[in-house]
Specification:
Number of domains: 2
Helix content: over 70%
Largest sheet: none
Strand content: under 5%
Oligomer: single chain
Order of helices and strands: HHHHHHHHHHHHHHH
Shape: globular
Number of helices: 15
Amino acid sequence: MTEKAIEKKKKNKYHKAKHFRRSTGDIIFDVINYTFYIAFTLTCIFPFYYLFINTISDNELVRKGQINFLPVGLNINNYLSLLQAKEVGQAFLVSAGRTLLGTALMVMASAFVGYLVTKQQMWHRKLWYRFLIITMYFNAGLIPWYLNMSMLGLTNTFWAYIIPGIVAPYNIILVKTYIESIPSELEESALIDGASTLVIFWKLIWPLSKPILATIAIFGAVGHWNSFQDSLILMQGAPSLYTLQHRLYLYLNQASNLAAMMNSGTSALSEVLQSSMLNTKVIKYTISMVSIIPILMVYPFMQKYFEKGIMMGAVKG
């Protein structure tokens, strides 16, 4: 068969496929599928959208609950005013600092320990690995944890946010499983070339483990950013070390208390409190948005690594 005949045959197949008519059932199935997933996506996005339009709308309309689908009376004064609040800015820096430093140290520790427990020559490797796993299932409780942190001198100090989270057993398991999927021949060839264990780790294992490291970095960053219980319990004597989530929690409590006073107080008192309630409600929405935006901005850049890492790191060999 000549080359022209082959090309003509391919074109005929292409045109047949192009003019292939789908059945009515296929079209109905696609319409239902697209409708469902579009509705589901909008349902997930709407709470964030609702918060956002309430932070850029007229504050009086927000207080009355008249902002539902579109912003009215656009203004960015809420965000500008929030930036001028010293305690909120300090809380943002504390949350950002613990997220960056805590995540970086956790990822490095998880990578290094996860690599070590894959080595057969590690002293009592199975014992240490099982010891790590046991800590996932046994917990002394809140009060012993607080007493332990207090005796270690980790109350009212920034390091209380960092040190307890450096060793994360679940993340170590994910890293170990992922590293075991890397062909051992790569390490053997590096050893033959004279590379040490540390050189193999930094030059070979670390670059190849980017997907799983990005995955645990997302886990760690979200955990640090959203955490407020340690701030609530351990930082009672250091308001300057409150996290952003802790500040949001305090504003939420303040808003609830003001609302209760308005419902049970006299009309004159209610009128006075309404102006305070206005500011509290707007600040509550604005801080919620400020606390959400950073994490939403991080995930898209990590998504390509996250999907690959969570699948390969979760497969037990």
